Amino acid sequence: MKEIQSYIAEHKNRFLNELINLLKIPSVSTDTAYKNDVLKTADAIKTSLEYAGCDFVQICKTDGYPIVYGEKIISKDLPTILIYGHYDVQPADPIELWDSPPYEPVIKKTEKHPEGAIFARGACDDKGQMYMHVKALEFMTSTNQLPCNVKFMIEGEEEVGSVNLSTFVKNNQEKLKNDVILISDTGMIANDIPSITTGLRGLSYVEVEITGPNRDLHSGLYGGAVANPINVLTKMIASLHDDDNHITIPGFYDNVEELSKEEREQMTKVPFNLDNYKKALDIDAVYGETGYSTNERNAIRPTLDVNGIWGGYTGEGAKTVIASKAYAKISMRLVPNQDWENITKLFKTHFENIAPKGVTVKVTPHHGGQGYVTPIDNIGYKAASKAYQETFGKTPIPQRSGGSIPIVALFEQELKSKTILMGFGLDSDAIHSPNEHFGIFNYLKGIETIPYFYKYFTALSK
Q1: Annotation: CATH topology of 4-200+372-460
Q2: Is the CB of residue 331 less than 8 Å from the CB of residue 305?
Q3: Hey, how many other C-beta atoms are within 10 angstroms of the C-beta on 424?
Q4: CB within 10 Å: which end of the chain, N or C, has fewer?
Q5: Which fold has domain 202-256+302-369?
Q6: How far apart are CA 286 and CA 306, in angstroms?
Q7: What is the structure's pLDDT at 244?
Q8: Domain boundaries, the chain
Q9: CA 118, CA 23: separation in Å to the nearest integer?
Q10: From CA 259, how far away is CA 264, in angstroms rounded?
Q11: What is the longest distance spanned by two Cα atoms in the chain?
């Protein structure tokens, strides 16, 4: 790719300003108060794709937030790359823990990002990484170096489970027809250690509600005489793990993929410093399933975590009350071969069965998706590897991620295409947390690397 570094250097400030303007829009898909902002972001993406060189762009309505589709078709005889990303973001809560307002992007230097990083909600997940692809296309079209066809599918509901994407994909298979799918919604080991994500965990997300008495009660008059839903809920949740942090739901591990000794040994070659890991999180010890390393626990083993718990009085001061209801949100990260719908059923049955008399249980499934493993012997992975070698000067390390992108398995099922996960974020970028950020180096390096994927995928497809 001729002149790509000079092109990026020439347009660096504009690339940064365009992303900053996109990050200023609070496109929170889970909260209807931000509906207009989510729709405004979709319009902004459409405009950006048109400017980047797409010949056809449309905002496709769904039963929820729209999907922005764009394409640049050169020849039916050339391969087609489908880019997937999302323009919605997580809520910024808790706002008070941000060092700067979440929708007023600022650039600050950090230990991991000495060249500076953009701090804002959605900076890394996924506006910054999605926008790398838009700017990469701009470079290729403006310099007449686009070697193949490209399609974009950018959705606005990823953070709420891609509620309407499945229907859109099933109803638009010809429109979305491709030879490979490229996604940047993952990370890499370090700025000097490139890696390609080859595995994702699946997900089952549920909400539970425990109901006791028909109203809040005085804890003095009724305490010890009726079941306290908060006490009951905490005991039920505590029972979901045994002393070895093994999940106790019957049947939960029936289909868990057990990696071979050789595969587990390969994982130990990934650079990892446990002391630095603990230091970065301000913890004095790691925690998890007995018999597995930290990297194994957060990548190849299933988990169950409480994401939120509430009930009773939580305001200032004291109120002596036994709450009528208690709630929790629980997510289970799943490994390949665990079916998320089956796991959801197993959880529901077990949680209802362990409830004591005196309370009732309601389990509400929210969303989920299957895990995914990308083989490293296909031309998509090989093209990505060669692209990283070109721009980083190093062969990237294949690495499984603990995160979930549920629609990846859907894409393979419906579109019969493999997905390549070229992420440029770092573990320290605080996605889903206060002070989320994305390195300027990473943003620009992504724009530089992506065109080489196009080049090598096209060459290997011949």
Answers
A1: Aminopeptidase (3.40.630)
A2: yes
A3: 26
A4: C
A5: Alpha-Beta Plaits (3.30.70)
A6: 17
A7: 98
A8: 4-200+372-460, 202-256+302-369
A9: 9
A10: 6
A11: 79
3-state helix, strand, coil in the chain (%, to 5): 35, 25, 40
Residue type, 85: G
pLDDT tens digit sequence for 218-249: 999 999 999 999 999 999 999 999 999 999 99
The torsion of the CA quartet 434, 438, 439, 440, rounded to 10 degrees, works out to -130
Q: How far is CA 332 from CA 201, 356, 425, 433, 435, in A?
A: 10, 23, 23, 19, 25
Residue 60 tokens read as: 């496709």
Q: If DSSP codes are grouped into helix, strand and coil, which group holds residue 249?
A: coil
* Per-residue CA distances from 79 to 68, 133, 177, 458, 459 (Å): 21, 17, 10, 6, 10
Per-residue pLDDT of 70-129, as tens digits, reads 999 999 999 999 999 999 999 999 999 999 999 999 999 999 999 999 999 999 999 999
Phi then psi dihedrals of residue 307, to 5 deg: -95, -15
**What backbone phi and psi angles, to 5 degrees, belong to 203?**
-150, 140
AA identity, residue 445: K
DSSP state string for 407-425: HHHHHHHHH---EEE---B
Q: Are 62 and 168 in contact (CB under 8 A)?
A: yes
Strands 180-183 and 419-421: parallel
Predicted confidence (pLDDT) per residue in 153-206, tens digit: 999 999 998 989 999 999 999 999 999 999 999 999 999 999 999 999 999 999
Does the CA dihedral 17-18-23-24 come out positive or negative? positive
Could you please report the per-residue DSSP string of 10-73? HHHHHHHHHHHHHHTS--BTT-GGGHHHHHHHHHHHHHHHHHHT-SEEEEE--SSS-EEEEEE-
How is residue 28 written in tokens? 């929170």
417-448 residue pLDDT tens? 999 999 999 999 999 999 999 999 999 999 99
If phi over 0 gives left and psi between -120 and 50 gives alpha, with beta otherwise, what is residue 245?
left
